[in-house]
Amino acid sequence: MAEYAIEMRGMVKIYPGGTVALKGVDFAVREGEIHGLLGENGAGKTTLMEILYGTRSPTEGEIFVRGRRVEIRSPRDAMALGIGMVHQHFTLIPVFTALENVVLGDEPVRSAGLLDVQAARARVEELMDQTGLHVPLDEPVENLSTGERQRIEILKMLYRNADILILDEPTAVLTPLETKELFAFLKRMRGEGKTIVFITHKLREVKAITDRVTVLRKGEVVGTVDTAEVSMEELARMMVGREVLFELEKKPREPEEPKLIVEDLWVRGEGGDYAVKGVSFEVRGGEIFGIAGVEGNGQTELVEAITGLRLPDRGRVLLAGEDVTGARPHHLYARGLGHIPEDRHRRGIILEFTVAENSILGLQRLPPFMNKWGVLQESVVRDWARKVVERFEIDTPGIDAPASALSGGNQQKLIVGREIMKDPKVVVAAQPTRGLDVAATEYIRRTLLRMRDEGRAVLLVSADLDEVLMLSDRVGVMYEGELMGVVRPEEVTLEEIGMMMGGVRLEDIKSGGAKAEAESTGG
Amino acid sequence: MRLDLRRYAKPLAESALSVLIGVAVGTLLVILAGYSPVVFFKALFGGAFRSRNAFLDTLSYMVPLTLTAISFAVAARASVFNIGAEGQMYIGALVANAIGVMALPNGAHQVVAILAAFLAGGLWGWIAGILKAKRQVNEVVSTIMLNWLAFYLVNYVATYHLYDPKAPYKTEYVRETARLPELIPRTSLTLDWVLTILIAFLMFFLVWKTSLGYEIRATGINPTAAEYGGVDPSKVISISMFLSGGAGGLAGAFLVLGRFGFITTTLTNILNWGFDGIAVSLVGRNHPIGILFSALFFALLYNGALEVQVATATGGKTGVPIELVLAVMGIIVIAVAVPGLWDMVQERLLLRRKRVEVRGEAAGTVGGE
Amino acid sequence: MQVAELLRFLLYPTFYAGMLRMMVPITLGAVGEIISERSGVVNIGLEGIMMLGALVSTYVGHFTGSMVLAVVSGLVVGLAAGFLHAGIAVNLAGDQIIDGVGLNLFAVGIGEVLLYLTWGSFATSPQLPPEVRVPSIHGFSPFVVLTLLVAAATWVVVEKTRWGLRLKAVGEDPVAAEAAGIDVFKVRTIATVVGSLLTASAGVFLSLDWLGAYTKNISAGRGFIALALVVFSRWNPLTALLGGLIFGFLFQLSQSIPSGVVPDQILWALPYLVTLLISAGFLAKARPPGAVGRPYKRV
Asked: Of A221, A341, A392, B191, which is most buried by a Cβ count within 10 Å?
């Protein structure tokens, strides 16, 4: 048997827009190891693995599987070679049941192509028993939790007898407890002879689970090392290319009066069920209030209800003392709300609009940008755009360039800059650093802290637990639409936060009763 | 905001290419039907220039073409696919006709008739807009149904109420006080030509220079981002469909108050301009200035096709009917739908040049993508 | 008593035969479009494809005198239109709406040109000889049976087979389908072509069965009514069949009420008004396939 399960040589990927994602990457994974693929956002990790899985075609390069040169043109080819992949954004059909999702593409059939549902169920149930990964098979996937969805994705791979498993940032959607379970499962799989590629940007995870690790930076391999022989600090340096100083200076500050008050808010999600169930909290001036929790536990709906994008069923929202429940966004902006939305391409920016046009999104009907006849004041808009670009050091060919010409980091700076230039009393920031590189992330985080120091109230919603704990003065943990508790980061352990993310209430943790129970169910 | 010529070069090339494909297929059809391509071409492109009157007539055809195209374009900017300009035009024509037969002083008469037609067409368009915004009704289905309803409504009113007792196949002539003055005496070029060009510039101003236009474009490109930006997408959709319908209504009003003075009870003298507008707008890239040029081109084609029908009807053969233009327009629209048409052609040219180079060097490697 | 007199036609079998005739083209078109849209491809060109199917089958039937050739040629047009739309909408990721509108314009224009050049009339072709027309079986058009079978078979394929599961997967989420090893382009192309083929057969029905000729505007908006029927049916072929019967009943009703009671125009307008109202009333809650109308591109 060949030494390497996978070998990729000289991989180059140039996207149609001209972006060079991979600059000649060599990558090799030994049979039966857990191999970490570490790198910042945009380093090319996902692109490299998508080429291996056949969802992207390489511009140049050769792939060898168990020593044999192969062409992988589609996931079908990859599956035939025993390669399976769990994407960071799950590739499940939301309206299909778990069973349908697992068997899709390799369905057991009776004659004439008729689906053999019994056979499918039997096979999948057997697989669930073998692996210990259990999911409700007849429920549409859209009704399942992210943890369950990930299990379906893993079952999908194993159903096709994959023995090379690629997992792209699998812990981003898991609670600490679920992460522990996943790691135990992966080690068991390694014991059964599977080869695993584990994509991540978290150093702790690399140390916890991998045998060897390859570090990518800006489309190039920095090095491949035995995990046991490097320190976290060394890995960090390899990944970022400089010393990482993640110690942001956070001055102690006496908070002022509450500027955003949420009282017993009930909000329905897309499906019509309640996604937010009676959430209450307040954010004071000069304070960052963080909301932690696994994604999909109602954070999106909560933010949308506060920012006027979704009508709450019950409860109140008070902005600077005024009841603004159910008010539309433009009304809220006029009363001092700034909103950095969760998905910048879906909400925050219009890619085809110019930088100048994007710099007034939400302000287009306010003086001085519009005169009383409804005509946009071009010179005012241009001056404003120039100011945003200058103050927030946005790297752009000019204010007439389309926003699509900017990098992700600069697009986010444009959004953040626009919202801050509004001089808001309350800032709602949802996943503000998602997908950004370290430099842009640092910039945005510093800006959020500056806003706090200026006496504004900041509501920070983030799935990145480190980020929430680092920036917030107080943290609320959300689980299935409810706040499990509100804590100060310096007064709480990671385990306690993890339990709250998994659905244990703070008062239960404090009373100690539930603690033992939670641990006994843990992996 | 600032003019960048390179930004317009590619869409221009693509439109030209689409037109070329359409005309080529049209020519092929004519040849297949056994006609001389020379006669066809001379008539098609010379027809509009055969006389001073023919040329002025061509210019006046720009009016309905431009307005129905604007009707399509305004909605398209909000990402609404309005194929109801046809029905909106019928409604505008009817209202203008009904008001035109009343007794009103010259000057005021035209203004009232035009405004009423704009309003009526606008309301007709607004129905589809509100159905889409509030009930998620696909606008393609609703506007087509509204076209049929408009047809039968106008047909009904013309047959039973507005008919000319002396010639019941058509409506009563509108009064002289309601007619639009001729720009050049005894030609079909009337004041509406000037008004139409003004309206095209008005659309430009509205869409690119006002807050409403900003919101229309934002909604069209990314409705969720527009919503975040404080825009109410359903309001913007209804407003743009109202303006869109208004432009369609004006097309009908100008046909009645300008060129014809009446409509036939089965609407034969005003049919199809609304559908033509879709092609005009697409070739003009849904941009009012592009639309003016595209409308001029299609007006030339239309007038040329009239000449084709005469020129090909020789030696006992039947002339190629003017509906050929509709078929050619169809091909053009299909070609417009092909994305990156120009890129494809360029790539082919590039590839051929590369191949020649490679052959010249005897040995060479061709890179990836 | 007056009303009873007016509605006497409800007692005669001819009314129901007419209703079934009305049902056939819109249902065939709707079922075809359901297949296409379930894969994520919208085809606004149903109207044009019906017209072209009717036009070509009439033309071939007129000049060859062969029913088989006429039917086949009509279907070939459907295939060609399907491949054209699939080429633009699926393989080139072009605008799904625009090329459909173009096809409709083309069909109207070319129909008029051919009518006039071939038969010297802007209104209608001569009646086809009986041997070219599709014969009725016991007074029923074979197309009625075909429509029932097609709707039922489509339901079975979509809901019960491997192919249906993949079709739905591609229409709901092409990225996920591709990751599961399904060839998105192939599935979408096949679905588009099959949909177009069924729509063209509706055109063949109009010319060779119902009217026995090609007339101006022969489809009279039926392609668009079929589109409305697709949404009405919530993308379910059996519901489409039911909807086709309801629409057929209403259309036949509007034609059966004796002249002179209400102005003809109101009766003629009724089907379109009903379609509009049904669209507005029933469609709001329907949930279309997740990726319908959105082109899929690989990078």
From this structure: A341
